[in-house]
Amino acid sequence: RIDPDRLWASLMALAEIGATPRGGVCRLALSDLDRQARDLFVRWAGEAGCTLRVDAIGNIFAQREGTDPSLPAVATGSHIDTQPTGGKFDGNYGVLAGLEVLRTLNDHGVRTVAPLELCVWTNEEGSRFVPVMMGSGVYAGAFSLEHALAATDREGVSVRDALGAIGYAGAAPAALADGAPRFGAFFEAHIEQGPVLEDSGDVIGVVTGALGQRWYDVVLTGMEAHAGPTPMDLRRDALQAALPLMQAVDDIARAEAPHARGTVGWVQVFPNSRNTIPGRVSFTVDFRHTDDAGLARMDAALRDAVAKVQANGRVAVDLQPVVYFPPAPFDPALVDRVRAAAARHGLPHRDIVSGAGHDAVYVARTAPTAMVFVPCKDGISHNEIEDARPEHLAAGCQVLLEAMLETAGR
Amino acid sequence: RIDPDRLWASLMALAEIGATPRGGVCRLALSDLDRQARDLFVRWAGEAGCTLRVDAIGNIFAQREGTDPSLPAVATGSHIDTQPTGGKFDGNYGVLAGLEVLRTLNDHGVRTVAPLELCVWTNEEGSRFVPVMMGSGVYAGAFSLEHALAATDREGVSVRDALGAIGYAGAAPAALADGAPRFGAFFEAHIEQGPVLEDSGDVIGVVTGALGQRWYDVVLTGMEAHAGPTPMDLRRDALQAALPLMQAVDDIARAEAPHARGTVGWVQVFPNSRNTIPGRVSFTVDFRHTDDAGLARMDAALRDAVAKVQANGRVAVDLQPVVYFPPAPFDPALVDRVRAAAARHGLPHRDIVSGAGHDAVYVARTAPTAMVFVPCKDGISHNEIEDARPEHLAAGCQVLLEAMLETAGR
Ligand SMILES: NC(=O)NCCC(=O)O
Ligand SMILES: NC(=O)NCCC(=O)O
């Protein structure tokens, strides 16, 4: 049995690093706060008897020996970077639930047959650096280490420099080479980040897979001019041209409801002065869908909308895809193990599809994978008021423990 | 006859302070670059034999004695702050054309009967601090000194602190007290900042008045949430709610064409993360109209649009008016003097209404006022590529000289 109080205390201690006045956490990937959180994790994992390894993209792997070193590790983990207005649980829960599993096995002197491994993946949020789920993406070969290291934040700082600055550019190769040891299995515990479990009164979400995603950067270039003397019909207003496109992102997703999502989360207007007609507008698009054909329809519809604005001729539009992965189904056998563990404890549970991307989505390309969801308050995440109940977090951790134990053998 | 080369050389020298790589000027109000430009002006005005005075909002007045000290001064001037992507001529031309008038009179040993006065008004652009045309607004009593000093920029720095930091919080009272000496007349030379003169092939714009303006701050508050798991119909997306309002700003102005302008120049999205639904969006509205009733119709239409979004109930909208002044007609007698001076030199000229606000609009509340426009390249202003032809600038300066001389007497 895992220790609910110890799990909660660890969550609260980690949440102090980057704590915000409104009760959330702002701990952007590869910031100094990220370093502090990583240092704390490394200390805790060391105290739990793990061997630590850091790879070239900054992923941290804490290994606990098994009785049969020839077997591939049964792994778990998540991320500890957060959104700018993030909460205490997104990602952090998956890492600390994994740590609680190891501590519980230590308490009871349990040795598993296969080794266990606890992972902290770099830059899952994708808020400061794109691509999102960067550490697990490099690991799984979704994109190259070089591509990831060259990514820059809005201030022009590269992943390479930021990793170096916080001292987490490790020596281990980041991408899983052909024939390299793969995990025997990967589990990730996470808050749901949506309203489904709370709505149905379930405590455990048995995650059968995740939505596919397509992300884009859009830049519209018009001509800045004085807001006073410039007649309406002579304007090349990049913002007014952008409005129907931003609107289309929402419309396109609604047309595919309830299977799709579409979000413009980030906008920048240049020169951003009250009495100057905007000469340039940049914004992001985040599309998600339960199936890949739907995602392709959304892509086509967005390109149509862009072509329409282009055809108008007054403002140039540049559309750059920056993230794409298809919907990812998880491993049925491992998913069954999660479902069975929940049932064994009489925990109300249901199958669920993840709306968020998770490191597990990329790791699933390299090893059988499953996820455990627990409810979060009002389904709210990526918000400082993100919250979860200690008993739900404990239940998810217990399910994680049992699914891992069953997979690793004892 | 004014000296075209000296005028051009002064413009180019001033444009070096805050020069941008793309050939423009970024010299925000009350920045250290503004201080450097002010210091240069103070030196030049001193060398031209003027007595200098700085008031409590930082306006600079350079006086040249007349033969009859009992007469009110005939004044001219403009501003030397710029937009973030500003040009070399907006404002600067009006100040340096005034300086060239004084230098020319010095060259020829001309004493006017009434004193002459050359003004540099603080924060005309309104880009860093609102209200716009701040120095002349306080002078004319459009709003109080206290109100202006309390205004803060996006970083929270107040006008009071910024004025103090650059050493231009002067001792002279800023607001024109009842019974205080008013100007006998005020002239302002300025680039047109629009396409009309270039289009008609005219060199001098005889400005009969300026558009009225209404500016607003709009804030929409929804709820930030994760872009993945949050279904479309449960969202409280502040950006999607803002889109029809921003669109309305443009539509409302087009409905009043060709008499109106409507611009959203500044937008801020919170928390501005790709995969977080925006919880808050702030933007500005800039409405202009040739007549006050039209401006009132635009105000009503905007409030209707806001009410419609409010009624939807998912996102709260706050609309705050921040600037209002009615259309300002200039003094017919002075306007005639500008027209006559242009005609005397055979300069192609036409009557024109200013789309931009100018310090002259506020000064006109306290003294007979007129303006002289010269064309700018492609009608472009509030843009680093703003440009004007030396011979046009010289022609405008000559007209200014003659209109001032005729008014001040010799
Ligand atoms: N779980 C999570 O917040 N992931 C961030 C990537 C995404 O936006 O899906
Ligand atoms: N002339 C000028 O650019 N004034 C700024 C105020 C306005 O936006 O009209």
TrEMBL record, chains A, B:
Binding residue positions for Zn(2+) 1: H79, D90, H190
Keywords: Hydrolase, Metal-binding, Zinc
Keyword Zinc attached: yes
InterPro entries: Amidase_Cbmase, Bact_exopeptidase_dim_dom, Peptidase_M20
Cofactors: Zn(2+)
Annotated GO MF terms: hydrolase activity, acting on carbon-nitrogen (but not peptide) bonds, in linear amidines; metal ion binding
Entry binding sites for Zn(2+) 2: D90, E125, H382
SUPFAM superfamilies in UniProt: Bacterial exopeptidase dimerisation domain, Zn-dependent exopeptidases
Co-factor: note: Binds 2 Zn(2+) ions per subunit.
Cited NCBIfam families: hydantase, PRK09290.1-3, PRK09290.1-5, PRK12891.1
Similarity annotation: Belongs to the peptidase M20 family.
Protein name according to UniProt: Zn-dependent hydrolase
